Amino acid sequence: MGSKNKLKRFNENETFTNVIQPSREEVLDNFSFKGKWHSFFKNTHPIVIELGCGKGEYTIDLAKKNPDKNFIGIDIKGARFWRGAKTALEDNLGNVAFVRTQIELVDFIFDKEEVDEIWITFPDPQIKYKRTKHRMTNHAFLKKYDHILKKDGVINLKTDSEFMHGYTLGLLHGEGHEIVHANHDVYKDYYSPDEVTGTQTFYEKKYLEKGKAITYIKFKLNF
Asked: How far apart are CA 145 and CA 192, in angstroms?
């Protein structure tokens, strides 16, 4: 995607009522929607967030299937989720929003126990050891998620990376968290939830074409 096209999409995002593009300073300095997301959606429905939402396919599809829940996609690359935001407006999905910010600021975007469920879909596995701090299921990130999740809140990790899957399982077991469901190939597991196999992202389809297995973990935190 050319720089002019990216700029065009970024500017168009500014006109979308379902997109919020705060500066880092605005997020860190008492973000305006923190603790007030139900006011944004004008209802008290459960809040589900997708971290690293990319084009927003998962956020959009889950929102269509669950009109009684609110969905928020978060990604630093607004030119990517531009498509999802535009689709949400075209399809009159009032239960969808997108926020352009860094994932590590998630605990500044949401208040304590404000979120019901988290989806992490196909994150960069950050395989090199020196990149451990950037893995989205490391201890530091789990602590952030624990802060914003309700007591019975769940986290879903869907990835094509066996490394990410194994790393996360090992960490969850080691820290004593609750693994609700886990498997190494969701399309060969009869018990895979519909929300896992019923939605495929652009990249997921590419992985499947290459014969890569898609893994999944659903878990609860017990800090």
From this structure: 24
- Burial (Cβ within 10 Å: 0-12, 13-18, ≥19) of residue 190: exposed
121 within 8 A of 158, measured Cβ to Cβ: yes
What gap in Å lies between CA 127 and CA 159, rounded to an integer?
A: 13
115, two tokens: 């979120």
Task: Name all contacts of 127-134 with Cβ < 8 Å and 24+ positions apart.
Answer: 127/161, 127/163
**DSSP secondary structure letter of residue 74:** E
Whether residue 124 lies in the annotated active site: yes
Other Cβ atoms within 10 Å of 26 Cβ, number: 14
- Which entry of 124, 146, 152, 185 is annotated as an active-site residue? 124
- Residue 134 is classified by DSSP as G
When divided into structural domains, the chain yields a total of 1
Q: What is the pLDDT along the chain (223 residues), one digit of tens a residue?
A: 566 788 889 889 999 999 999 999 999 999 999 999 999 999 999 999 999 999 999 999 999 999 999 999 999 999 999 999 999 999 999 999 999 999 999 999 999 999 999 999 999 999 999 999 999 999 999 999 999 999 999 999 999 999 999 999 999 999 999 999 999 999 998 889 999 999 998 889 999 999 999 999 999 999 9
Model pTM score: 0.96
